[in-house]
Write a structure and sequence with these properties.
Helix content: 25-40%
Order of helices and strands: EHHEEHEHHEH
Shape: elongated
Distance between the termini: 79 Å
Strand order of the largest sheet: 1-2-3
Number of strands: 5
């Protein structure tokens, strides 16, 4: 069965109205989170879908990210928070617990393209764990500061390093039994 074609061209209904998107408010602040390797330019292909709709150049944003991460976080994977206002981006580094633990190990920066399957076999002090826990406290899911310290010790275990020469999980057990190192309240 063949459908008959109409002779007259189709037209849009007379009530059709073209609606433009609203203009961007210059004072509006938008937050964009990007996961990058410190000191390296993220690919424009990964930045473009995030910053393109905000009217910004991915290349310029990439250069800003490199400036913010090059000194302290070279070679470590960190999350960057882009604060976009009036098509200008400010970059803040939001480090994860794992990147803070690896940074505390004071390992030399490595080229991630050449060195694979890194084993972090060093040792950090319990004071480093407390310092990292204080940084992570606002983002922690635990009620008490002691729980945040347990989170950091668990991260140290998964990274593969030791705390004061001991296995992090042994320290967790000692703190729970009341025999381990003194844990501050805040």
């Amino acid at each position: 069965m063949v459908a008959e074609t109409e002779d007259k061209p189709r037209s849009l209904p007379s009530t059709f109205v073209v609606v433009m998107p609203p203009k961007m408010d210059p004072n509006e602040i938008k937050y964009v989170y990007v996961r990058v390797t410190g000191g390296e330019v993220p690919g424009a292909s990964s930045l473009a879908p995030k910053v393109g709709p905000l009217g910004m150049s991915p290349k310029k944003v990439g250069d800003d990210i490199v400036k913010a991460t090059a000194a302290e976080w070279k070679g470590l994977r960190v999350t960057c928070k882009l604060i976009v206002q009036n098509r200008q981006a400010k970059v803040e580094v939001v480090p994860s617990a794992a990147s803070l633990v690896i940074k505390a190990l004071k390992e030399p920066p490595r080229d991630r393209k050449k060195v694979k399957n890194i084993v972090h076999s060093g040792s950090i002090s319990f004071d480093d764990v407390i310092r990292i826990a204080r940084i992570m406290r606002p983002r922690s899911l635990s009620k008490k500061f002691e729980g945040t310290i347990f989170e950091i010790l668990g991260t140290a275990q998964s990274v593969g390093c030791k705390v004061d020469g001991e296995d992090p999980h042994d320290l967790i057990e000692q703190i729970k039994d009341g025999a381990g190192p003194e844990v501050p309240d805040e």
